[in-house]
Amino acid sequence: MERSGSSRRKGWIVVLASAISLYALAGQFGESEGYTDALFWHDYTLPDVPPGGPLEEAGFLPGDSVVSVEGIPVEELGMYSRWPRSLARKPGETLTMTVERGGERVSGEIRYRERPSGVRRMQLGGLFVAFTFLWAGVWAFLFIPSSHAARLAAMGFALGLAVPGPNLGGWNGVRDHIQLAGMVLFTLLLLRFFLSFPEPKRIARGHLSTVLLYLPWLFLLGCLGVELAFHPRFYHAFGGFSSLLMLAYAALAVVALLHAWFSSSREERSASGMSRVLAGVGVGLGGLLLWVVDAALLPALEVPLSSWLPLLLAAIPIGMVLGVRQGAAAGYEGSVRE
Fold first, then answer.
1. N or C: which end of the chain has fewer CB atoms below 10 A?
2. Are strands 72-73 and 65-69 parallel, antiparallel or unpaired?
3. Which residue in 278, 274, 284, 263 sits closest to 325, CA to CA?
4. Are strands 65-69 and 94-101 parallel, antiparallel or unpaired?
5. pLDDT tens for residues 131-171?
6. To which H or E segment does residue 289 belong?
């Protein structure tokens, strides 16, 4: 009976992962939307007008306050995101946006373009990284008898929820908020993993620490619910809090990883799989650093390997799976109260 129940759980895990994968693929390949740089802040102002882009071509300026899109008042557009995808056009088509500038109203036609190759590569790269986390976690759950494997699977599902899906019309706001909640949950579960790998740290053994870790994320869920319920008064008002929360969880995860490294011997790191985990994290973070340097500090240069960021980030879940498998073989099962 127990084996039958375990098989059913594993079957449902595969079905759920497959459903998330199909949903994410539909978001990337199921539509033919064009591209525009028309994004506005939660106060409906245009923060930037990229040179040579659709906004500049239409005659708009930074700081313009958006009044309406296609004649629909901006407050009635719904919780779609910073740009209403329900009004999106195909490449070559246009829509009219009206802004207020210096007490006057100015209108212009925004012409959609083909997605730039760089944007497309970034989207596909993000999808590749998410799928690597998702299916590496599923594989670990299916074949590694360890609670660490279950945590890897949970991380994969959280990141899968963060992948942009297809256009859902009036439900786009709910979809976007689920994506944001999934991304924050991913960083939280990453922290939980390193607090328990290869063996539970003292802070991870009690109920109180679990409550303290999850409480900020639960508070964020409440904030996202407020945004959906009281739009436009709270239109994306809590984006800054979610970013800080992700940064805090990720930073604490790195601290927990380093603590496990420095508090164990070379033999323990090898036997527990910690060396493999750290190798994967090092490759991924190194790739991220190269990408930041290339994008922000040396935009005119092509830093070697910077364009391989998705492949380098994929080393993180692969290293984690290999480390968990090595640790399980050595008896590091990682049981801890959740």
1. N
2. antiparallel
3. 274
4. antiparallel
5. 999 999 999 999 998 999 999 999 999 999 998 888 776 67
6. helix 274-292
